[in-house]
């Protein structure tokens, strides 16, 4: 079936109204949960095959997050889906005002390769919970996960409700020509622009979950051991191929040496003295990205790591020093296990530099000083972030997750996924 036939099929099905009933949506979410349970081992195997993710990492950063979203959604869906009564202006006597969340219709979800399971299934939960149909386009760079996604969805749902179209850019392009009622895209900023241009043709509302260079700032008074643990976990998870990974490190010059020593100890503790002997360190997704990252290793000087083994697509956790704002590694999102380090003496000019650049997806600040926290939060615009932690803001159901400016638009997770995939129909009913 081509893209046009598939969208027409889903549109006809959507118009029957079946997906709108709460019972249908709840049953679909439960079926999806069962499907994921049934495919548990295949998901782990596919993530190992495509990215060399260990079972522990694959479970905690992909499957567990999706199951958590499913359970949370099932628990709250009835409440979210109910019409909300809001006050009516006194100038309209006898009026009742309500907001009715309703599904958009036929939705498109385009997923990237770095968390290929989570970033396809998590938005799908939002689409289904809001009563839409969905076409999923997984990334071609993780073929095992793409195949299992197609199989799992086929086992759970008829194509008229949820379908997977596997393929490369051409498949995306073909899909983007069609008129969807909502598009949810996760991927790079340049492709985000392509998606938005295509969406503009049909005036299709769109969420763009993009990337960028997310800074980590370690201030003079930070708990350095804790900062090191958190930075290592955030930066080297999935070998740095994480949209919200700290991209570069800004550290106060007084604590630079001690922090770097703590990071070195933490890397050795977590991944072993020689990561090439660690069978569980994820590899770089393909040769093109490996070569791109290898070039950064010639930037500055490796304080830690610095080796790249092409046959294994492996790059060591690396700290780069001798970097400035103009260095090549500071010009694009790194998306690999390389952390450039720059020291500062005064925070204000550093924040100015950050503000001069595209708005990042995340920002991490390590300090106990509430004044510094306040200054950073009020000076820099970024998608979301943490103080004295990395990554964890994205695993909370209560915190909408998304970017701003070049790092994206719109957000999801928890209730926000339901809201994102719903149109809010405002109704005034007058009885006098
Ligand atoms: P990508 O933009 O290259 O690809 C994403 C998807 O778009 C894939 O399914 C791909 O097939 C498709 N695609 C690629 N080129 C296309 C084109 N010209 N037209 C239409 N579709 C096209 O991104 P990627 O390399 O898979 O993922 C890495 C990027 O995604 C990084 O920038 C990362 O920061 C970002 N990312 C963001 C988030 C987030 O939640 N904000 C999460 C993960 C990744």
Tell me what the structure shows.
There is one protein chain. The chain has helices spanning 3-15, 22-38, 40-51, 55-81, 118-129, 143-156, 169-177, 189-202, 224-236, 256-271, 287-296, 347-356, 370-379, 415-420; strands at 84-86, 95-103, 106-110, 133-137, 162-164, 182-186, 206-209, 215-218, 248-252, 301-304, 308-309, 314-315, 318-321, 338-344, 362-366, 384-387, 408-409, 422-430. It is an alpha/beta fold. The chain folds into two domains: 3-210 and 403-430, Aldehyde Dehydrogenase, Chain A, domain 1; 215-395, Aldehyde Dehydrogenase, Chain A, domain 2, CATH 3.40.309. The strands form four sheets. The chain has a seven-stranded mixed sheet. A hairpin with a 4-residue loop joins strand 11 (308-309) and strand 12. Helix 2 packs antiparallel against helix 4 (55-81). The protein binds nicotinamide-adenine-dinucleotide. Nicotinamide-adenine-dinucleotide is lined by residues 110-114, 119, 137, 139-140, 168-169, 172-173, 186-188, 191, 194, 209-211, 243, 333, 335, 361, 403, 408.
């Amino acid at each position: 079936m081509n893209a046009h036939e598939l969208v027409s099929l889903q549109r006809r099905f959507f118009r029957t109204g079946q997906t709108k009933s709460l019972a249908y949506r709840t049953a679909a979410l439960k079926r999806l949960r069962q499907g994921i349970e049934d495919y548990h081992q295949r998901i782990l195997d596919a993530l190992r095959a495509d990215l060399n993710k260990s079972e522990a990492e694959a479970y905690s950063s992909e499957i567990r997050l999706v199951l958590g979203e499913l359970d949370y959604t099932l628990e709250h869906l009835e409440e979210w889906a109910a019409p909300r009564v809001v006050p009516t202006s006194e100038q309209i006597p006898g009026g009742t005002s309500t907001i009715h969340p309703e599904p958009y219709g036929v939705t498109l979800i385009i997923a990237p390769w770095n968390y290929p399971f989570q970033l396809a299934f998590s938005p799908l939960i939002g689409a289904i919970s809001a009563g839409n149909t969905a076409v999923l386009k997984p990334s071609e760079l993780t073929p095992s996960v793409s195949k299992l996604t197609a199989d799992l969805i086929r086992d759970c749902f008829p194509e008229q409700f949820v379908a997977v179209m596997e393929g490369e850019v051409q498949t995306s392009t073909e899909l983007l020509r069609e008129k969807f009622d909502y598009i949810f895209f996760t991927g790079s900023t340049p492709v985000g622009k392509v998606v938005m241009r295509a969406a503009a043709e049909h005036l299709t509302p769109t969420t763009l979950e993009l990337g960028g260079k997310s800074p980590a700032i370690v201030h003079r008074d930070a708990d350095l051991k804790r900062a090191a643990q958190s930075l290592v976990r955030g930066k080297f998870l999935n070998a740095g191929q994480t949209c919200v990974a700290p991209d570069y490190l800004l550290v106060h010059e007084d604590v630079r040496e001690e922090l770097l020593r703590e990071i070195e100890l933490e890397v050795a503790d977590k991944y072993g003295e020689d990561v090439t002997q660690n069978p569980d360190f994820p590899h770089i997704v393909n040769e093109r990205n490996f070569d791109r990252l290898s070039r950064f290793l010639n930037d500055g000087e490796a304080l830690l790591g610095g080796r790249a083994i092409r046959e294994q697509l492996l790059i060591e956790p690396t700290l780069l020093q001798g970097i400035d704002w103009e260095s090549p590694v500071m010009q694009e999102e790194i998306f690999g296990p390389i952390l450039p380090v720059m020291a500062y003496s005064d925070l204000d000019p550093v924040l100015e530099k950050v503000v001069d650049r595209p708005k990042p997806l995340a920002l991490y600040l390590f300090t106990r000083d509430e004044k510094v926290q306040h200054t950073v939060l009020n000076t820099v615009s970024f998608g979301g972030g943490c103080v004295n932690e990395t990554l964890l803001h994205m695993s909370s159901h209560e915190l909408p997750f998304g970017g701003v400016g070049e790092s994206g638009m719109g957000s999801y997770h928890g209730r926000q996924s339901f809201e994102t995939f719903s149109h809010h129909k405002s109704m005034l009913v007058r009885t006098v």
